[in-house]
Amino acid sequence: MTAVLLKNIGILVSGRLQEPVLNANAVLIKDGLIHHVGKTDEMIEEEAQTVIDCNGTTVTPGLIDTHCHPVFGDYTPKQNQIGFLDSMLHGGVTTAISAGEIHLPGRPTDPAGVKALAILAAKSYANFRPGGIKVEGGAVILEKGLTEDDFREMSREGVRLVGEIGLGSAKTVEDAGPMVQWAKANGMTTVMHTGGTSMPGSSTITAQMVMDMDPDVVSHINGGTTAISVDEVKKLVTDTAYALEIVHCGNPRVAVETVKLVLENEALERLIMGSDTPTGSGVMPLGMLRMLNFLSSLTPMRPEEAICLITGNAARVFGLNRGEITPGKEADLVIMDAPLGSVGENALAALEAGDVPGVSMVLVDGEIKVMKSRNTPPAIKQASIMNGGVSCL
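Structure (tokenized):
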């Protein structure tokens, strides 16, 4: 059994809105899962093969980007760029969830083709973690002609996601509605494009169209990139129970208004966040950290609450055993602190001030995958690996 101990944690963010900050400063990991959360003096360091001194900094669950558009491997044909997923890991993202492999050159639009693409992408990313990041791939795009048997087969073969409804030829309730129900019946999470058109062949989707379709997730409620009106957002907040997703590559004003509406209606547990990259807006390695500092500094939402949206909330919506610092969960963790020069005295205060924190370490399943992020500004205080009581950076 391999064990890793994180000690001397300054702030421990749980990923749970009910208790965003834990009264604890140590985490013990065994065989890739969180084993115990408590105080440093409760832990027996000799049990751990690796001891990480967090040096009074902040530890959070690994960030979950709920809206990514991978294709295969760590390459995006949309921006002709290699290594974008590995780069996201350096921004604290330990899980990227596909909203559809729509950028594949020559993407098939016939039933056999889209089914094969979803199965292949799901199986490929189940076996491949670029830099260590977990990619939940294989989000089937709904095209006319798909049958209930197709959804049963895809489910058997590991497909767990339906890509943005509205990007394929099955756009109407008559065409796509039955498919949404077949997908749900087979354990898939369904997300629906919301707002203006984002690519040739897609269509503008209103709040009523979303409610008629009845998906699990209102994808990019602030637009990808063009948003519905704030009045339309209000309908989705007050008249539905769907998960509501805000994205980086959307309308910033509507993002702020959405958070205000969610807070007013005590519905923060429904809010999740994604980057919606790669897109025409580009690749955003720090997209999720920038969402955190944007909304923590410009809305009444506290930074520890914002972190819970892109960790615990996201994991719950997509049925993942991660996103919370609690025993039994996968040990995907980020160690961060205020960046050099920030007015904030710690990572949370830096986010509230509008700064991007400095990431000093990222762990996936308890394994260190990043030491000193190459993308964030340097952290004031760095975590370090202890070797016989000696700090080893």
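The radius of gyration is 20 Å. The mean pLDDT is 95.
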